From TrEMBL:
Residue range from the parent sequence: 58 to 331 of 503
Domain of life of the source: Bacteria
Protein name per the record: ATPase
Protein family per UniProt: Belongs to the AAA ATPase family.
Keywords carried by this UniProt record: ATP-binding, Hydrolase, Membrane, Metal-binding, Metalloprotease, Nucleotide-binding, Protease, Transmembrane, Transmembrane helix, Zinc
Domain AAA+ ATPase: residue ranges: 49-193
Cofactor: Zn(2+)
UniProt key word Transmembrane helix: yes
Protease listed as a keyword: yes
Length: 274
């Protein structure tokens, strides 16, 4: 295909097999996404369109990766935003940003000739927190705008818009967001178990030179409680140790040092945050 042969360029899209572990979450997500793919059948049966999917779970477990893979799977354009981007001092700015985001999704899909768009909003709890009755909050307007946009999504729309939102704190969300027709599909993206950790390690070790003594199974065993993001860090830190030791390959001892380092980093983060 005429491209440079010197270096394989990383694809800009992400597929589900680049996400380690999370088998149940992936399966549930794919089942839900088939609602978008099989649009005609859904329409014929008069099934209510799937508008919002909520990904819940601790930081660094792959929620953003899931949303990106979902976009690739459904051949949708992908737009991402974070809840904190909508928090502004001036009333109405957040709401108009929500409007802009939906407009941008429609424009981008039209421009690229695609039939659907996935909008991913990380930290949805920042704008979707419980509205507390009397007390006027600036971002009530932002949340209301989001609800309005969601209510305006129809099965026959072109492009079809799907919202995916992520939060570590589902219990903080306003119930209006969770109602049928809104974020009514929830997928838990939990910390990986040992098997999941091993598959994540394998994914991130793919492009790294490993010494013969490396035992990733053992690394998976020793990293209880680590997220995917932590595991990616372990491999990266191990490579840095190898460099420092002027080794050309990552050895098991580098991995052990890296595990300690990532574990310590996590501990100091926690101590300084409180
Ligand atoms: P946050 O809530 O903090 O935004 P998140 O759940 O969205 O976290 P991601 O942004 O998807 O987490 O993951 C961060 C990085 O960690 C990824 O870019 C990837 O390198 C790695 N990672 C996390 N989970 C996995 C996984 N299941 N498989 C492979 N890599 C993962």
């Amino acid at each position: 295909s005429g491209g440079s042969k010197s270096k394989a360029k990383a694809p800009t899209y992400l597929t589900f097999d680049q996400i380690g572990g999370q088998d149940r979450a992936k399966k549930e997500l794919i089942e839900a996404l088939d609602f978008i793919v099989k649009r005609d059948q859904i329409e014929k049966l008069g099934i209510r369109p799937l508008k919002g999917m909520l990904l819940t779970g601790p930081p660094g477990t792959g929620k953003t990766l899931m949303a990106k893979a979902a976009a690739h799977y459904t051949n949708s354009v992908f737009l991402a935003a974070s809840g904190s981007e909508f928090v502004e001092m001036y009333v109405g700015v957040g709401a108009s940003r929500v409007r802009d985001l939906f407009r941008e999704a429609r424009q981008k899909a039209a421009k690229e000739g695609r039939d659907s768009a996935i909008i991913f909003i990380d930290e949805i709890d920042v704008i979707g927190g419980k509205r507390d009755g009397g007390q006027h909050r600036e971002y009530d307007q932002t949340l209301n705008q989001l609800l309005t946009e969601m209510d305006g999504i129809h099965t026959s729309d072109s492009p079809r818009i799907l919202l995916m939102a992520a939060t570590n704190r589902k219990e903080l969300l306003d119930s209006a967001l969770l109602r049928p027709g809104r974020f009514d599909r929830h997928i838990e993206v939990d910390l990986p178990d040992k098997k999941g950790r091993l598959s994540i390690l394998n994914i991130h070790a793919k492009n790294k030179p490993l010494a013969a003594d490396v035992n990733l199974e053992q690394v998976a065993e020793q990293t209880f409680g680590f997220s995917g993001a932590h595991l990616e860090s372990v491999l990266n830190e191990a490579a840095i140790y190898a460099l420092r030791h002027e080794d050309e390959e990552i050895a098991q001892k580098h991995l052990s040092l890296a595990i300690d380092k990532v574990m310590m980093g996590e501990k100091t983060d926690r101590e300084t945050n409180n």
